[in-house]
Amino acid sequence: MRPDDPAEIGRRVQRLRGELGLTQRQLAEPAYTPAYISTLESGKVRPSEAALRHLADRLGVSYEELATGRPAALGTGLRLRLTDARRALATGAPEDAAALFRALHEEAVTHALAEEQAAALLGLGDCLLESGELTGARDCFAAAERLLADEPLPRRVPAIRGRATAHLLTGELRYACYLLESTLDELGAAGLHDPDALLLLYTASIAPYMDMGAHARAAHAAELALALAPRVSDPALVAGMHRGVARTLIAEGRIAEADASLAKAQELYRQLHIRTELAHCHWMRGYVHAQDGDLEHAESELRTARSILASKRAALFTEQVEVELADVLRRRGKTAEAEALLRPLLTPADEKDDAGRDTGALRAGRGAVHAGGAHRLLGLIAEERGDTEGAEEHYCAALSLLERSSAAGDLADLCRLLGDLLRRTGRVEAAMDAYRTGLGHRAAPGTTTLGPAPATPPM
């Protein structure tokens, strides 16, 4: 039975009146009659707000507590503990924070606090993203979105962005773009130009755009995010924007500007004590140095990122960094160390390590783009030592993973590698097929299949 059901309210009134030793007449006067109190206590009438406020005043409780059965400070206390759980996720292991969010969610359900339920589910979804439980994360974000169904769309944007991120990490790049773009269109059509919501959506769209090869669309999203940033007061949102924008600057060859943007994000995350995002900044700075040919500094930054993420037990992100670190190690001639990093990431999913945990996290449905990258690197290593059969096997495995994710740029590069290998081994027709496939991905990198870009909001 709902806590605001007339029978529940009636029972609360009767209990509180009994605890104070008041008669029905004493409680009713001067505004109401004893007969009305009797009818109310029997659950036969739904009291008006005015009646509830009168009764609450006479019974010495708050209006909210009498109307809902919840102590006045319960919602405030829950929100404070949700903040503490967020802090635990920022600084510690996701599974520890997940336990806090689950307990808070159960408490919010018990007291029918929909807003707090949604906040707990959003936090739990973020925990599951870090630990790589992408299906569970997606379910949490979807449940939060349903709880907020009657709220204005900007209130639902963090849940939508969470769902899009889960699909992105799964390798469903096109669907991630669809979620973000359709929400932007809906905000625009409704005239809901909320700066925080828009910044969150534009920043989140940069990664799938880049992975799909839609660089022009990513650059436009970055420009809009930069224009929105002065109207946003949340430093975490601004830091995320700087990190996202850096990726488009890297693609344009503006390395110094990208590094400066990452430095701004890094400083904000350091002030906010958000260690996972701080690790992502080290990760991206490693990528910047690698693109600029400074492999020594790239290795240092990636090792720092890996160390932070491993200490937080953020499993999926740790494994993704290890793929990029392995690339730098291979380029530095540390082939054995690179291979030792990569092979455990691709162990069959049903195998366990010595501690009985699942291994081989990177696979289709969970980190597919980086799984493809790991196979690509192992193919290169095999080719460098003359194992053409092993190289071909890894390239084909990578191709299968990346085709499902629509990662256009990576696909084109992989088709070139496979084509070169096939040509060197005398299979010219097969090589031509591989080159044609690569050219097809390069010709339309995520532009003809995404549909029209969302309308630009008024700034």
Automatic annotation (TrEMBL):
Record InterPro entries: Cro/C1-type_HTH, Lambda_DNA-bd_dom_sf, TPR-like_helical_dom_sf, TPR_rpt
Pfam families: HTH_31, TPR_16
GO MF assignments: DNA binding
CDD domains, sorted: HTH_XRE (cd00093)
Signal peptide as annotated in the record: none
Domain HTH cro/C1-type: 13-66
The protein's name: XRE family transcriptional regulator
Organism: Streptomyces alboniger
